[in-house]
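User: Fold both of these, please.

Assistant: Here is the first one.
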Amino acid sequence: MDVDLAPAHRGPPLRVAIIGAGPAGTVAALNLLHLARRNNRPIRVLLLDRKTFTQFGPAGCNLCAGVMSAALIHDLERLGVIIPPHVIQQKILGYELETRGGSLLLPRPPGSVIYTAYRGIGPRGLHYDEERSFDAFLLRSAIHAGAEYRNSLVADIRRPEGAAEFRIVCAEGDSLDVNVVIGAFGINSTLGRCLTSLGTGYRPPRAVFACQAELPLDEAFINEHYQGQIKIFNLGMPRIRFASLTPKQRHVTVSVVGRTVNRQDLMTFLEHPAVLKHFPSGWRCPDWVCSCQPKLPVTAAAHPIAEGMVVIGDADISRYLKDGIGSAFFTAAQAAQAILEGVGGREALRKTYYRLSRRHFRMDNWVGRFLFACNDLISRCPVMVVAFLAVARWEQEHLPPGRRPLNEFLWGMFTGDAPYRTALRAVLRPGVLMGLCWETLVASVAWLRGDLKTGNWKTETGSRKEEPVR
C-alpha cells in the first residue's frame, strides 16, 4: 500500500522516541523505518525501556500468556520478520472448552496458525537463554532494522513552554530532546501519569485484573496430555469470568480473569475437579511459582493524541479481553503511518490513527462486552450450557470444517483470530438459533425429570451421553 507522506526536508532527520520496547513499541519502530526507507525520508527512531526481556520472571516479562494469532504472524511477515523456531514454545492445534455440562474440543480451523511463546526468557527457575524471549526477538529485529535502543527508565516527559520539542528525562538524570513521542509503555506502567502533567487530557483505560502463574510440569506429560491444545474454562465460578491453561514446553501458564481476581482465586480455580484432571494424578500446586497480576483494559483511553504525541497499544485501546499482542500491532502500524503522513501533527494523528483505531475496535468491543455478558449468564445455567454443547457436537459430527457456525462462534470468542462481530454473525444464523432453542427445550425437560443432574440422558441428536453436571 502506498502511503502519502509529508515531503522530505533537508536538515536533521525526524527524531522519534518510543517509550516502551515491547511489541507495540518495536512494531511501531519497524513500521516507521520501513515506511521512511521506502519513501526516502530521513528518520531517527529511539526505543527506551528499562526492560531488556532477557531476565527470568516478571522482571523480564510483559505479564502475558504469550499466545500469538495467525493475523499477528502474518503482520510480522509483511515487515520481513519471521519468527524463528527456537522462540516457539508450542504450536496450538485446537482449544478445549471445559464447562459445567462437559467439554468440547474445538479443532483449529483450516489456515489458522497459533503459537505460544515466553514474553521474557521464562519463569524463575527455568534455564533458558535469551534467544527464547519473543519480546527480545522483536527488539533485536527492530535494532537490526535501524532503530536505536536505550536501556533506561523514563522518569518524566516534558515540553518546555513555547518549545516544539519534547524533553524526555531518564531516571539516571540525563535527558534528550525529540520531535515526536510514542507512548508504548502499556497499561501496567505508571508512565501514563507523566502525560497528565503535560495537559493533554490523557486518561488511561479502565481495567480489570487477571492473575497468572507458570506451573512447572514434565515435558512428556504436557506433550501427551495437552497435545497442542489450550484449555478454556467456563465453570460459572464466583469472581472468575473465564480461565485458561496454555501449554509451553516445560510449563503450563494458568490465567484467571475477573474484575478483581487475586492469587486466592487462582488457587481456588486450580483445586476444581475439572481443572485437576489436566494435571498428573495427585498433583498439587507448588508453594512457590512464578506469578503476576496484570491489568487488562476494558475501555479506551481518553485523549491519546496531542501535537507530536500518540499513545498506542493497551495504554490506549485493545480488543476486549483478548488478543492484546495483535491489538498492539494494529495500533503501532496506524500510528507509524500517521506520524510520517503529518510529521507528528495532531490533525494527521486524529485522522489516520485516532479515527481508524476507534472504528476498528470500539463497535467490536461493544459486541465483545455483550457476548461476554451473555457468556457469564450461560456459564451459570447448566441447561443452556448443555444445549450449546449439543449443537456444537452435532455440527462436528455432521458438517464439514468451515461450515460449523456455532463452532466458529466459540473459536472467535476465545481466540484472537476474528473480530467479535464475526463471531456474533455466526451464532445468529437461523439454523443455529433453531438448534439452540430445540436443545434448550430438550435439556429443560431432562432437568425437570432429574436426568440432567445424574447424566442419564442423551441429546436429541443421540451423539453421546452427557457428562454429569456438578
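And the second sequence with its predicted structure:
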Amino acid sequence: MSMPGKRKTGRGGAKRIGPKPLFVLLVTLGVTVTSSLVLYICHSKTKPVIPAYEETRRPTSNLARDIKDIDAIIYEVLYEGGVPERDISFLAVRPRHRSGMEWDFTDLLVRLSEPGQIHPITSSFAQSLKGLGSLVSYKLERTSRDEALFHLSSGGYYTHRIRLTSRGYARPERWPMPRAALIVDDLGYDRDILRTLSRINFPMDLSLLPMSPYREEVIGLARAKGSELILHLPMEPNNYPEVNPGPGTILASMGDREIRNLVGEHIGSMPGVKGVNNHMGSYFTTRPDKMTVVMGELKKRGLFFVDSRTTTQTVAFEIARKVGVSAANRAVFLDNDLHPKALAFQMKRLIGIARQKGSAIGICHPHKKSFDFLKSYTDRLKGSVKLVRVSELTN
C-alpha cells in the first residue's frame, strides 16, 4: 500500500508529467514555433524582388560575345601594350542595326610616335584575333609604312575600325580637361549597396526606380552627397511582359492622359528630382507619339532627359530637342560585363569619347564589383576627366 501524501514514480524513479505541465509545455512550444514562423515570414517580406537591370542586346548572341572579346584584345594590345591613353582616340561609337541585330560600331584612331611601332602592333592584333573563331574576320589595309587600317567584323556585321598612324605625329589638341558624368541606375531595391555607394568620394548622380521600397534612403543619400536625383522611368521594352521593367511601367498601349498621370505621380514621389532617364524602353522610346507625351510633362516641370539608348532605333533625344527639353545621350554602359578588364576598357572608352567630343555620360548599375572598381579607379579618373553633374552635359 502506498503511503499517504506520496506520488508514485515510474520506472527508474522518474516522476511522471501530469496533464497540466504537459499542456503548458505544448502551449509554450506552439508559441515558440509560431513566433519563429512569423519572424521568418516578416523577414522574407523585407527582401523585395529586384527588377532586372538595363536591357542588354542579346547578351548570349555570338555578335555580343565577339564584340566583348574584340574589345578585350584592343585593351590588351593597346592599353596594356604601352600606348599612352591620350594617343588613343574614340572617333565614334555609333549605334547600328541590321537583320534584327543591334550593336555599337567603334571607330578608333591610334597615334604612334614611331613608324616602327606599327608592325608589332598589327602582328599582335592579327595573332590575337585568329584565336576568336571563324565568325570573327578582319581585313588589314597596309596603306603605307607609317599607317595601317584594320576592319573587323563578326558574322558579317562590321564592328570595329582601327587606324594606326605615325604620320605627322603630335599629341592631339583637345580640351584641357574633358567633362564626364556618371549615373548609377536602378537604385531603390538594395539598402545594403547604398552603404558602399556612400563611401565613393567622387560625383555620381543617382537614378531611382519609382515605387521602390528604399526610395527615401536613396533620396536622403542624394541629398547628403550633393548628387542629382534622377527618376529612372520604367518604359515598355521589346518582348513585354516576358521582359518586365517592374512596377510603374509606362506602356505604349496607355492613353495620353494615363501616361501623363503616371509620369506625374512618379515625379511627385521624388522630392528634389532634377531629371529623368529611361529604364529599359527598347519599344517605348521608338514611338515618337508616346515620347512626345512624356517630354511634354518634363518640359512643364523643367526636368532634363538622358536617353539610356537601350535600342539603336530610339527617337527619345530627337523628340526631347523638338519639344524643348534639355537632353543628352548615354555614351557607355560601364558594367554590362563585370570582368575587371571589361570594366577598365569601358572606362577607357568613356574617357576616350569625352576627350574626342568634349564630354560623355556613363551609366553603371548597383553591383558591388562596379563600385569596387570605381573606388580603385578614383584617382586615375579624376586625372583624366572633370567629373560633373549630368545636368551640366544636357542641352
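The longest helix spans residues 19-45.
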